[in-house]
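Task: encode each sequence below as structure tokens.

Item 1
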Amino acid sequence: MCQQGHEFPIVGSVPRFVESEAYVQNFGFEWNVHALTQLDTDSSDESERTFRSKTGFTPEQLRGKRVLDVGCGMGRFSDVASKWGATVVGVDLSRAVDAAQRNIGSRENIHIAQANIFQLPFREETFDVIFSIGVLHHTPNPKAAFDNLPKLLRADGKIAIWLYNGYDAFRWRFSDLYRRFTPRLPKRMLHSLAYAAIPLYYVYKIPGVGLFLRWILPVSNHPKPRWRVLDTFDWYSPQYQWKHSYEEVFPWFEAHGLKDIRVLSVPVSVQGTKR
């Protein structure tokens, strides 16, 4: 029960601050089917490398800090931050929190909650670090979603976000056309269609023909087959999929008085610090 007298259920060890998945049912499906696909293992550190490049954070910066992962999915990046010694709170609007709880929720330094980014259940100045990787562009209003985050930072706290790249509209021409229909398909049907990414990976390597097919039928080109299926479904299934530029995103940070705003290595990723 909160101070205002509202009661929220705890289901499967996860506090639930929402009554439904709203517009992100595809992610609840996706991350429970692919609950382990992108977790780092003894033989792979791809998620850790991705986290570094899209947030700019290092283990030294997160160790001992209180960190908020906005849109934690099945816990891919919360896993990294917790291994670096942070106390991590991972929130997601979708049922992906069930997968995150199974994957990493038993760790003492991780707390998972199902919550809406537009109504986060935290006091202001709660966190030392906030990150959101590949999430804001799947909300109805990415700027409004971002606006809910800086107030949760303590003084000198840092925030980093990564958004889809809006500079290459020509590249997304056909996928955007297909996306007029694909989010409406039954999730299991679309997921089955995403398996086409497995053989297309090899077809794309054919000179000439491969380049043409890559343009008119864009799917993931990840070297791991299961990642290709996941990434392709992830691209074609969301209801919302905005793309952004640095010229658009920098004013978001400036409007909240954030300082030391810097561009990171992967477009479009930005980090800033609260005054």
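Item 2
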Amino acid sequence: MPVPGHIVALGGGGFSATGVPTPIDAFILSLAGRPRPRICFLGTASGDAESYLARFYRAYAQLDCRPSDLPLFQTPLTHDLPRFVREQQAFYVGGGSTTNLLAVWRLHGLDRLLREAWDAGAVLAGMSAGAICWFEAYLTDSVGSDLAPRQDGLGFLSGSACPHFSDDPKRRPTYQRLIAEGFPAGLAIDDGAALHFRGRELADVVSERAGAQAYQIFVRDGHLVEEPLQARLLG
């Protein structure tokens, strides 16, 4: 059986925050395993915002890669989706509305195409919405003013996920409460930190700033447990 590729899930940060490439951006490209990999930006969660797309190109133009993008809000679509997706070695999914992202991807069949690409060895990466969409369940602010639990993720990875964990004061107590009440156990990620999955197995936790890390949150013997996952600081 083929071994799926990589998933890199950032709680926040990367070029989205700085406008310039960070060590995590370089780390994502290194996982493609070839010189000048093709990496496609998916800005669906932000409605293909032009300012976000410009930040991606400014940042990744400074790295050894071939950047491109796949807009889904233009009419008509200008790409042969199956062929275009097959040609990429990596994808970077920007932040924004997770629920909108999932709806649009499913409408166009991009969820299935990304699964096929990942199964064939591609790197799937993203921050915030682009991090949690790969899981079965997630905590989001995409459906109203309050944080809400959702269980309609892509399911490439099991369990749930929460971004911006130590940076948004509402995230930790809300995520902990939900898991204590029966929401799927999962992984929480600080801004500046990222989970690296090789296939479906968590292989590493990396960070681009000191102090940023991730956490496993689950219930054991009726008690909520939060276990820090120390991140490896990238140079």
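Check on item 2: The first helix runs from residue 15 to 18. The helical segments are 15-18, 23-30, 50-60, 81-86, 98-108, 110-119, 129-132, 171-180.
End of task.
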